[in-house]
Amino acid sequence: MTFDFDTPVQRAETDSQKWQKYAGRDILPMWVADMDFKCAPAILAALHARVDHGIFGYARPEKSTVDAVVDAMERNYGWKIDASWIVWLPGLVVALNVTAQAFAAPGEEVLTLSPVYPPFMSAPKNAARASVQVPFELTAGAWTINWDALERAVTPRTKLFYLCNPHNPVARVWRREELVRLADFCERHDLVLCSDEIHCDLILDPALKHIPTALLSPEIAARTITLMAPSKTYNVPGLGTSFAIISDAGRRTRFVRATAGIVAEVNNLGYVACEAAYRDGEPWRQALLAYLRGNRDFLLATVARELPGIVIEAPIEATYLAWLNVAALGLADPIAHFEQHGVGLSEGTYFGAAKGHYVRMNLGCTRATLAEALRRMKLALAAR
Ligand SMILES: Cc1ncc(COP(=O)(O)O)c(C=O)c1O
Prior knowledge:
Layout: H1 17-20, E1 28-29, H2 41-53, H3 63-77, E2 86-89, H4 92-103, E3 109-114, H5 119-126, E4 130-135, E5 137-139, E6 142-144, H6 147-153, E7 158-164, H7 176-188, E8 192-196, H8 218-222, E9 224-228, H9 231-234, E10 242-245, H10 249-259, H11 268-280, H12 282-306, E11 321-325, H13 334-340, E12 343-344, E13 346-347, E14 358-362, H14 367-382
């Protein structure tokens, strides 16, 4: 079966957050992380059938939904999880906030590596916990962890470590040695490790594999809260269906207790989409990865050839998000400048970068949209 990622789908004047931001303005939205592609036919068919049933009462996952997740973990990563370890959630930003409340007390600290997806830094603060960020280093063309700085950042108040695996926005797939070293770091300092793996099925480099952090050893599994969802890969984030995998019963209870009365249940359609994605979505996912690889390669070639002053410093190994260094352009406000020329990017400072240094670009769009965005960016450079 072939899948069509090239035919544009009209998203302007719909409920799309990504497109509403620039309603009425000729600005291509390349910011928030959802894709402009219709989701897999298998998911659409399952949703249609569920809608035809016609009743949308309070939902619980069916056994077939749980089985689809359990089977996907084993098939994709050789990770044998027990169904009882799964905690269903309406989103992973929710999970980051719950984790901070469950595993750190007010005034205690949550460590992470930056730049990073903004809720990694805001979730602790939302609950009067502190966020401490250790900047990545650029070593031989790869974003790497500054281990000395990480050790120095630990205090007696550090209780939790947030890992983004693979990483948004630097698009890095963590290697086994790095994960083992991080796990050892968390064990030595007795930190709970929250591993957000929402992008794990979006590995673009065929030579690399996703390694769930909890798979490293039973000891590290016991201190790991793994966060996953079909939302990014299968383009169903608006259906609000995610899950944590927590093998340690004590930590799972603590996590669930922190959700009580606050976190809403997952909805009927989200469960249906989740099951169809993990059970039947693989051919579509493979086609998507091929298309995204094409977009990535097109971006890299175009930036190198036609956008002097914009630098992509490291390979885009995973995700459909590109982290662009725009410091050499000398723009006080790169976002405003590119918006003036018709391209809406994500502000690097939200991820912890210095003002004017970085922007993030979403490549989850048709090749034609990407080409048009890059054409406009070239004009933007000429108009400085
Ligand atoms: C690392 C990471 N975690 C979580 C989310 C959002 O998750 P949710 O929509 O389930 O809250 C994103 C969205 O881009 C993300 O990149």
